[in-house]
Amino acid sequence: MPRNKSYSDEIVLERAMQVFWSHGYEATTVRMLEKEMSINQFSIYASFQNKKNLFIHAMRNYRDYVKKHRFQVLLQEDAGMAELESFLLNAINAKKTGSETKGCLVVNTAGEIGSKDCDISGEVNQYYDFVRDMLKNVLRNAVQKREIPTDTNIEQQANFFLGVMQSISVASKTMDINRLTDFISVALSQIR
Predict the structure, then answer these.
(1) Rounded CA gap, 120 and 53, in Å?
(2) Domain 70-189 is of which CATH architecture?
(3) What is the pLDDT, as a whole number, of residue 1?
(4) Verdict on whether the full-model pTM lies above 0.85
(5) Quick one: fold of 9-58?
């Protein structure tokens, strides 16, 4: 007879996401995962097959996490330039307060794994597609609100701001707040 799970996949996946986010894919060991997930190696493999598959599930969980905890302001139906500016400034304010020191799991993964693994890089690109689509909606709203010129190339600008967001995630780990603020100011001024 199959054994019933004594744990919630949702809870252990959240814990795994936090471990990978703190340590990266390569440095995270199965022993670390066992300890933080509070399940044994057999259960990890029974639920997720292997570390890589667990990591991919953790990245998908991260996408849901940022929708709820980071991107709410940009996911509003009528979000425009004010919301984009607020989001970018809040990203550097998190550095100022010390509330965010890990950066972005996906950006960290892109830097660590790059294109070495097509399954993981595919997951990174799915995340980027989600962010780019969200930004396209924000920019279309901004055009409708006359916050930016009507001839704005939405595709190009969405790609540009995707790059800005990813850059902030990396730069905020070491760059001084004033430089980050200048970076955001220039990025926003080029579209207005």
Answers:
(1) 9
(2) Orthogonal Bundle (1.10)
(3) 47
(4) yes
(5) Arc Repressor Mutant, subunit A (1.10.10)
